[in-house]
């Protein structure tokens, strides 16, 4: 079961709503009647983002019934995914956010699931992981969508990414890794960003856990990974780039442990959601219980 802290989801919702119009002008002349907002996914895709919509609906004082299970691949639509009941003015105030949350989270989950399936078809022993770079204010939603797709996160409390710019600022990779482990603990996993073989060797010798190559060719990646695994068999090799269905396969090399694509958070195909309003008594009962992804 995928879970998100209620406190974290609530804080995000409050910050998003603060950026919306404080006066809710679209609902200015609408009577405060009870209405149902029906949300549908227009195309085939994996539904994600439920905990954040739940937190938003709760904050608005409305109720929601989900008709499909989060994480399921929905058929070509439109497919009704949720019915939200509440005051019309409140629903109008949250309508755009509801669509944006579901669209972004579901698009990421769908694209990640597609790449994961592709890698499985290649019989590659490595794994696809989430990018380190997130969209400001939306990192938790992006990471959650990756979890829904069944991919591991590249971020955890015991790991640190060391970019090239930080290495230069610290005076070298050895000094940078030593500084990190002196503050975060000697068991901290350090991923070092590399752009050439010599830099990667220096990082491995300095105690790096993982070597991440950015934007190099598949030929260079295979050559570098082979040499590094020969001299440092326990070090992990990762490649990052703008991988998609057309370019992924050439990087699924024997000595490469993981891949990540920046397109997972910026560049994925966008899924559209539509909404329409009905009177509350027109709603039908949901076909499923509330899905996984509930806010704790």
TrEMBL record:
InterPro entries tied to this protein:
Aldolase_TIM, NadC/ModD, Nicotinate_pribotase-like_C, Quinolinate_PRibosylTase_N_sf, Quinolinate_PRibosylTrfase_C, Quinolinate_PRibosylTrfase_N
Residue ranges of domain Quinolinate phosphoribosyl transferase C-terminal in the record:
108-275
Q: What is its EC number?
A: 2.4.2.19
One Pfam family cited in the UniProt record for this chain:
QRPTase_C
Oxidoreductase recorded as keyword: no
GO MF, one term, reads: nicotinate-nucleotide diphosphorylase (carboxylating) activity
| Reaction(s) the record says it catalyses | nicotinate beta-D-ribonucleotide + CO2 + diphosphate = quinolinate + 5-phospho-alpha-D-ribose 1-diphosphate + 2 H(+)
Class of this enzyme: transferase
The leader peptide range reads none
**Could you confirm whether the keyword Transcription appears in this record?**
no
GO terms of biological process kind: NAD+ biosynthetic process; quinolinate catabolic process
Query: Domain Quinolinate phosphoribosyl transferase N-terminal, which positions?
Result: 33-106
Q: What UniProt keywords are attached to this protein's entry?
A: Glycosyltransferase, Pyridine nucleotide biosynthesis, Transferase
Q: In which pathway does it act?
A: Cofactor biosynthesis; NAD(+) biosynthesis; nicotinate D-ribonucleotide from quinolinate: step 1/1
One GO cellular component term of this record is:
cytoplasm
PANTHER family documented for this protein: NICOTINATE-NUCLEOTIDE PYROPHOSPHORYLASE [CARBOXYLATING] (PTHR32179)
Give the family this protein belongs to, as stated in its UniProt record: Belongs to the NadC/ModD family.
Q: How does it assemble?
A: Hexamer formed by 3 homodimers.
Role: Involved in the catabolism of quinolinic acid (QA).
Q: What is this protein called?
A: Nicotinate-nucleotide pyrophosphorylase [carboxylating]
Please report the organism this UniProt entry assigns to the protein: Mesocestoides corti
The organism's lineage? Eukaryota, Metazoa, Spiralia, Lophotrochozoa, Platyhelminthes
């Amino acid at each position: 079961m995928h879970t998100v802290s209620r406190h974290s989801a609530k804080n995000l919702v409050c910050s998003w709503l603060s950026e919306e119009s404080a006066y809710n002008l679209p609902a200015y002349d609408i009577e405060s009647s009870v209405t149902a907002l029906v949300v549908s996914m227009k195309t085939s895709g994996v539904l994600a983002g439920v905990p954040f919509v739940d937190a938003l609906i709760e904050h608005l004082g409305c109720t929601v019934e989900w008709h499909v299970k989060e994480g399921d691949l929905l058929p070509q639509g439109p497919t009704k995914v949720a019915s939200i009941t509440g005051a019309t003015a409140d629903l109008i105030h949250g309508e755009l956010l509801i669509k944006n949350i579901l669209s972004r989270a579901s698009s990421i989950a769908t694209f990640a699931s597609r790449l994961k399936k592709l890698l499985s078809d290649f019989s590659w022993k490595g794994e696809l992981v989430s990018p380190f770079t997130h969209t400001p204010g939306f990192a938790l939603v992006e990471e959650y969508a990756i979890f829904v797709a069944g991919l591991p996160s590249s971020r955890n409390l015991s790991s640190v990414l060391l970019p090239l710019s930080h290495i230069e600022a610290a005076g070298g990779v050895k000094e940078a890794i030593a500084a990190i482990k002196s503050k975060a603990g000697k068991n901290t996993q350090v991923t070092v960003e590399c752009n050439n073989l010599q830099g990667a060797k220096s990082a491995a010798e300095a105690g790096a856990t993982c070597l991440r190559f950015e934007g190099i060719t598949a030929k260079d990646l295979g050559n570098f990974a082979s040499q590094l695994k020969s001299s440092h068999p326990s070090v992990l090799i990762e490649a990052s780039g703008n991988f998609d269905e057309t370019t992924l396969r050439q990087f699924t090399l024997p000595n490469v442990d993981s891949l990540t694509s920046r397109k997972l958070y910026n560049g994925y195909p966008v899924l559209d959601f539509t909404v329409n309003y009905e009177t509350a008594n027109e709603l039908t009962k949901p076909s499923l219980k509330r899905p996984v992804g509930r806010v704790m």
